[in-house]
User: Fold Winged helix-turn-helix domain-containing protein from Actinoplanes aureus.
Amino acid sequence: MLVRVLGPFEVEGDDGPVALAGASQRAVLALLALRAGRPVGVSELIDALWPEDPPPSARNSLQSHVARLRARLGVPGLISLEPAGYRLNLSRSAVDALHFEDLVRDRAAHAAALWRGPPLPEFPGEPFRSTAVRLVTLHRTALLHFAGTLPPAGAAAELHAVFDADPCWEEGAIALAGALAAAGSRGDALEVLRRHADAVVDRLGLDPSEQIRQAQLALLRGTPASASSAGTGSAGAAVAGPGDHRIGPEPAGRPGVGSQVAAGSPGTSSQLVPSLIRPEDEPGAGVPLRFSSFLGREGEQRALATLLAEPGLVSVVGPGGVGKTRLVAETVRAVRVAWVDAADVRESDFLAAVAVGVGARVAPHELPVAAIAAAAERYPVVVLDNCEHVLSAAAELAEALRGVRLVVTSQESLRVDGERVLRLGPLAPEAGRRLFCERARVPASPVVAEIVERLDLLPLAIELAATQAAALGVSELHARLDDRLDLLSRGRRGGDPRHRTLRAVVEWSFGLLDPASAQLLRRLAVFAGGFSVAAAEQVAADGQLPRARVAALLAGLVDRSLVARHGPGRFRLLETVRAYASEQAGGVDASGRADASGRADAVARAGGAGPAAFQRAGRADAARAGAEQAGAGSGVTKGRGRHAARGTVFGGPGLAPAGPADSRGGGLADGRHASVRAAEDRQATEARHAAAMAAAAEELDARMRGPEQAAAVREIDALLPDLRLAYARGSAEIRVRLAAAMYRYGYRCQQYEVLAWGRAAVDGPAHPDALAAAATHAWGRGDLDEARKLAGSAEPPGAPAHEVLGDVALVACDAEAAIEHYRAMDGDPVARVSGLVGEALVRAWSGQVDEAVELAGEAMDLADAIGNPSARAEARYGLGEALGDTDPQRALALLDEAAALAGSVDDRLFQAASGTAAVAVRSRHGDPAPALAAFREVLRLWRRAGNDTLHAAALRNLVVLLVRVGADETAMLIDAALPPAQVYPAEAARLDRARAAAGERLGAERVAVLRRRGALLPAAQVADEAALAIDEALARGRG
Assistant:
């Protein structure tokens, strides 16, 4: 078989052209063909078919397209399904595009591989010399062509050797620089162009060409180089780097204020802030250079540009590593900027650093603030970067610069009059995935999506992770993310030391906290998910940290961007902050005060005092020397105002403020005692957390029984990570309390992990409802004997134990025992509804329809009076089952209503049961095709619910339906694969009729073969066979 995509899309089989019906089939085959021999993920195929908004049934529809495509192609095994996705089992030569690529690459590679060195070195004269020159030119042309077929890193490796031998080769220099830039090595790319320029001057006595100058300028400014300016189109594009969307300033004019703030293209700084451009400005002066592309902040850029349309203070606030500096740099790059990096400046030196940054000349006896204000007015924008540790000084200076466009970046706002705050949160998920994939040069995948989510979608963390992914691989990185603080430790050389490792970012923020705030943050790290203020008070407060202080301290942590809002009234720690705080909970004393040391030590731990760190220190020394008067008459009182407490945090010689905790200092005994106290504090906090979670689960269980069930389910879903953690580290009593309280949620929502918690009551303190949870887990997994044993051991047996025993008896067709247990469910009204419905089902399936209708009607009246959605759904399900044969129209209306009510509260049990019953009614009355289509959704619901027992019961209904539509072979295969089970008389009769009809059409010998195959079919594959049979039957019906 051949697939042709160069030109009109065509498929040719052994018997000639193959006609494909529909654009979806063609799109699926085209994508599989372009990856021939390699799997294509299901998510990628879905994105190709529905790029904007995939429907909820996308996976099922994709399976249908693939099934029809297989049938149309008619080659067994041509399209296979494996864990990584679908694979088209063709060679690359069978797909014209892949064959074309291979030919181009192979011929260029073959030509380049023949080159062993300069030609004819023994014969330097004519006529050999001209031939040698021609061959060298041909080789370089072939090499450039070959390099163009390689990824950037491979292209750089191929070009390097030839360029090193002749750095005067201009085209090679531009191409190599482009490859290095595209691979993320902008510094190396600039070095290549510098070496070329030096070689041309030294060896040829010439100035570098205009193309070289344009390439250098493109790298320095981060602007795309055109083909005309960079020598060749490929080299020019590569110099700019993939996805780089920064451009230089527009050369002339001063548009009206704010004229294009909202209209500029995303990420284009000269269009985002046109009101600030002046012809005499030198754009970008002072702005930190970054050579990588800038992704995912288009909306924030527009917001910042809008704020900068008018003079005044704008504070860009967010957690460390969120990209505050980069956002500001990219937004103001088109204008002349005074940029002051305060990262290594302590509060007493802040004004001196700003004075130097804005070029202020401080005359004797003049206040530095006045000189700074006068100098700042010469700049369209003044940026004070990294000010979280100098907030008092920055706040007082901002008061004096009201007429200046002043941008301050910090982890918290200055809280001064007139301040406009732009809070910068994590990236959107799509932007986070794009950033990781571009930096790591890997395709998008579910694993990538999980990596960036677990990194809180923080740009710095994603960039650090992408660096490691290039070395370790995505899967290995994903497997090691629990150790993210130590794993993500390879940041940019020469960058801010605080941003070279993930640990350094969080360590800086943590080191700025006062002892009480640090202690609260460590204690909040016991939460696995979100929490309310009340929960924080319950868990974090004790004799050392009074409950009355928790709310105010929590608000301070939110202001400092260390705790994030997580919905109305709820908060959470970023994962990186939680990891560091948890680590610190085992390494600091219980008072919360860490051993203090200089910030320089923190910088050294962050990655060493590299060249950039020394340069910043040099600039700060120059600031002090150039503005000596600033220290004497600064106009800013050190330690004064609302940030005065921070004055005690800084210390030590030089400019580096005192930083986060260091493990040095103190005696060995002191360290041991501190560790013991920290461990005791952690254990006490965990105990309070577990107790609070048990109490919360019990309160939510009560709400599960009333009209507020939907809200209760949502709260339990949100609380589940913390409930899981409380169960894992709680006492035996706590575990049993949790299991008992979560029975109703686990049963209704079919959460088998939660139901399994009931095993704690087997070996620990006995609790009837916890044992009922364990029994329900066994019932759902098909172990009826174990379920009966566990529920029967509950003393005294409450309504949950009787419910499980009734369900076990119902499935086992023990009508008398089932009725006995259902009638014993006379506790609360919701339990009474379940008992009435259970008995109604027994009566209905035993042929006692009138009694069943009466019982279900009584249940409906009671459920409606209660107002509990699950009870109302269950009652309507029971009445629908009872009326299925006598009044099918009313039965379907009731069952559809029951499924909707159950779905509204994630009651997976009765949503799936109601859907199954509705399909069964439709299959017995009227056209089976609609019922068959609906069964696809029923299978999905049962697979989602995870109840093996009732899933098998639903598949028995499918056997009857498949026989009705003529899918006899699959029906007999599924029938043989299902575990043996007792069935009620009416169902048994329907199954016997279906088996007889299929056997008559297939013959006894074929049925025997199918039964042998079915008996060997793995349980997990039965549902797949059923889904495929449904798709094929529906496709035949449409054909």
User: Anything to note?
Assistant: Residues 77 and 1035 are 20 Å apart (CA to CA). Residues 224-281, 587-668 have pLDDT under 50 and may be disordered. Residues 429-499 form one domain. The first helix runs from residue 23 to 34.
